[in-house]
Amino acid sequence: MTVCVPSRPVVDRREDSLFDLDTLSLPAFAPGSVWLVGAGPGDPGLLSLLALHGLRHADRVVHDALIDSRLLDLIRPGAAIEAWGKRGGQASPRQETITARLIDRAGQGERVLRLKGGDPLVFGRGAEEALALALAGVPFRIVPGITAGIGGLAYAGIPVSAGGVAGGVALVTGHGPDGALPEEIDRLALAPVLVVYMGLAHLAALSQKLIAAGRDPAEPAALVEAAATPRQRVVETRLESLAACAETAAIAAPALVVVGPVVALRAQLDWWRP
């Protein structure tokens, strides 16, 4: 039997050929506008093509403390670079000051790119910045990034869902606007998988609340420090031992906390090596 297959043009896939972003017809970065861009969790390779396009055209890049410094090499030569990072427990610029800076520079006709680790709308204050830009009449674009609670855990060999193991996940912050553990923890405590951002300061209270809400004290849990970076460390433990384990291992921010049966899959899925 003869099978006819339509012919296709031959495309040069040589490894030394350079990829041209212009072939994608990506949106123009207009003067006087702000792009809120997610850089992903650590590994520079997780930056999106749209984010790279923005870095190549920005007049000014205002970045946070969580991005990989190698991303700064991708910025257009001649562009201004400003570090405006916020870290819990350390002296940091106020959110209002950062937002005012974005509005001011865009008002001067610059293409301003706000570069944030992870995704700007997942505990990254991107929504607050976008609302302020909208109120000020500044055009903006949101460029999503891979959030640490999904991509960072993937680098730790921990999936947030798995067939037959866990069919739901809740992403929560362990650091509310007032610095305390948010009350939402109680309502989300029984999600099959719970991923907590910025939770190191309240680990003991977090464990107690989750156990009081009905979670098994012996449930698998893990701490992931500096996810998707060469400094990544993963410590597996149990829910009831999170605080003690973090102290013993001297886990430092930024770190993720994950609780749920998916942690046990790490024994087979620990693929990443720096």
Would you mind describing this structure in some detail?
- The protein has 274 residues and is α/β, with parallel strands linked by helices.
- The protein folds into 2 domains: 27-146, Cobalt-precorrin-4 Transmethylase, domain 1 (3-Layer(aba) Sandwich); 149-269, Tetrapyrrole methylase, C-terminal domain (Methyltransferase, Cobalt-precorrin-4 Transmethylase, Domain 2), CATH 3.30.950.10.
- The protein is 24% helix and 18% strand.
- It is built from 8 helices and 10 strands.
- It has helices at 49-57, 95-107, 126-135, 148-155, 184-188, 203-212, 242-249, 266-269; strands at residues 34-38, 60-63, 80-83, 112-116, 140-143, 169-173, 193-197, 220-225, 233-238, 255-259.
- The strands form 2 sheets. Strands 3-2-4-1-5 form a 5-stranded parallel beta sheet, with helices on both faces. The protein has a 5-stranded mixed beta sheet with strand order 6-7-10-8-9, with helices on both faces.
- The protein starts with 33 loop residues before the first strand and ends in a 5-residue tail after the last helix.
- The mean pLDDT is 90.
